[in-house]
Amino acid sequence: MSESRRGLLLGIAAYTMWGAFPLYWPLLEPAGAPEILAHRVLWSCLVMGVLVVVLRRRAAFVAILRDRRRLLLLSAAAGVITLNWLTYIWAVNNGRVVESSLGYFINPLVSVLMGIVVLGERLRREQWVAVGVAAAAVGVLTVDYGRLPWVALLLACSFGTYGLLKKLAGVGAVESLSFETLLIAPVAAAYLAWLQSQGTLAFGAHGAGHALLLASTGVVTAVPLICFGAAATRIPLVTLGLLQYLAPVFQFAIGVLWFAEPMPLGRWLGFVLVWLALALFTVEAWRHRRRQLRLVAETSAA
């Protein structure tokens, strides 16, 4: 098997696992979203710590601790990803799977807007059109829901901010997530200790199987991340960017087909507009990349 084919399969595996998360979080009930989050942080911290040692990333991890700028950026990233994880777990376990998928559909467009506001990037005309269509979609969905789709917007904005902070920090995925979970772990442990003191801790109270499921949150967090990291080094970023839509597609399908969440006409219209915006954005990005590569080739030939 060629390296590019292996990378493609690893990328598909990563986004498929992320897309299947709505089937996993309900298995952890009756633990509430905050307790599930606390377990995810603690067990992920343990698993990522092992990976730092096994993958020989200790030097890179120590380098984070010596760089004040990266410390601040990754500390902010830790707070943002904690909010994202909590929102997503709560949404899935409270019948908001479809709305959660919307958040990850519009995330690329939110990331583009953040690039304009924070990094001073400029959008091309077709990109502005895509952003405008996405804004119209949010308006349609607001009318349909009778409220802002706040779960989707919070997921998109938090994950977009997380991506921006990670880009600015320029640290590898394994060591950065290890630092982020290590930073939040004391808070998570304190919260679980408080639940235990109140007699409301779900861990261990519903059998060994349930306890093992809660403990598996660390592996469930780490495995797709490893697959993603391996894919990123083997396939072009354009391909990886297209694969990212697999996760919300699977989430949307699970919400509609498995959990039978309602999809009235107005909601369908909103999602169709979102998909149209993504199609415009993706096609424009692909054409722009081809133009850039052609110019590079012509310059090299000259």
Structure, described:
There is one protein chain. Helices cover 82% and strands 0% of the residues. With 302 residues, it is mainly alpha-helical. The protein has one domain (3-111, 150-262). The longest helix is centred in the last third of the chain and has 37 residues, at 265-301. The radius of gyration is 20 Å and the shape is globular. The mean pLDDT is 89.
From the structure provided, what is the oligomeric state, counting identical versus distinct chains? single chain
Largest sheet: none
Q: How many H/I helices?
A: 14
Q: Could you name the ranges where pLDDT drops below 50 across 5 or more consecutive residues?
A: none
- The helicity comes to over 70%
How many independent structural domains?
Answer: 1
Q: What is the string of SSEs from the N terminus onward?
A: HHHHHHHHHHHHHH
What would you call the shape?
globular
Report mean pLDDT, rounded to a whole number. Answer: 89
Percentage of β-strand residues: under 5%
Question: What does the radius of gyration come to?
Answer: 20 Å
What is the number of beta strands? 0
Structural class: mainly alpha
How widely separated are the two ends?
Answer: 37 Å
